[in-house]
Amino acid sequence: MTTLIIIALLGFISGSFILLDLSPLELLESISKPFRNKKVIIKQKVNKVQHKKKQRGFKKLITETKDILEMTGKKDKFTAICILSFTLLILGALLSISMANLLMIPVLAAGLALMPFWYIKFTAVFYKKQLNSELETALSVITNSYLRSESILTAVEENIDYINPPVRDVFKSFLSQTKLINSNVNLALEGLKSKIDNEVFREWVDGLIACREDKNLKHTLSPTVSKLSDMRVVGAELEYLMYEPIKEFVTLLLLLIGNIPLMYFLNRGWYKTLVFTPAGKAVLAICMLVIFISLGAVIRLSKPVEYRR
């Protein structure tokens, strides 16, 4: 009966948000607004105007997930991810109730709800590696053609069939804009910079814009492209160290979770104390909390090597 009541309550709450077209984050901000400190220093006002306020916590994770989905061309799947997250939240609450562990409800529900967003963030690492590899090839062949023809449009047209997605789609859009929308190549190059989130690519586009003003600067493009090769070499050398936190986390996770059934066979009294007493339930809740916090930290640390100016 309790389980049915909780499911009905969660369904009522989610339905109310959908019908009223409200966001949980907006509701929390409006509730906490009267309790905030009214005194705002000039520095905070300047940072707010310049949009320098850093996002943190769940809001930052949501923003990063949206950016990753938009970058990979899967922006329409964000709603499905939110629905999956809410389903896992209910599942976590039901599992905790079935274990008669009330302390576990917020921990397991929140942790499972974050899993889809963490998964998207983790898989973005492999996407960025593939993007950097394709970007290295594309910029290399386009630069060689540009050094010969001194025309970026000609260079892109000559090599567009040899470039693979998703880089190919970006340069196709560039050609379409210069031919069908606006013939201003510098304006198209400025728009090209924001299509790919890569510091070397933006530096390469800045170099192209400078080369259109002074053709003698065209030989500065090749050293810029070589930075992508350096990143690939350094990433290959440090790949073992990058995945070391994941290996350690998985090992410790297996040891921690595996000790619970092992305790059942070795000492039945300890197992009953851990599972059925209030102190044992609190220990299980704390262990689960540490697991989710560690998982978030491991995913945050697992990122490919990137060039920064």
How would you portray this structure in words?
Keywords: Membrane, Transmembrane, Transmembrane helix. This is Flp pilus assembly protein TadB. It comes from Maledivibacter halophilus. The protein is an all-alpha fold. It has a domain of 103 residues. 78% of the residues lie in helices and 0% in strands. The protein contains 15 helices and no strands. Helix 8 runs antiparallel to helix 9, helix 10 packs antiparallel against helix 11 and helix 13 runs antiparallel to helix 15. It is elongated, with a radius of gyration of 26 Å.
What labels describe this entry?
mainly alpha, 15 helices, single chain, elongated, Flp pilus assembly protein TadB, 309 residues
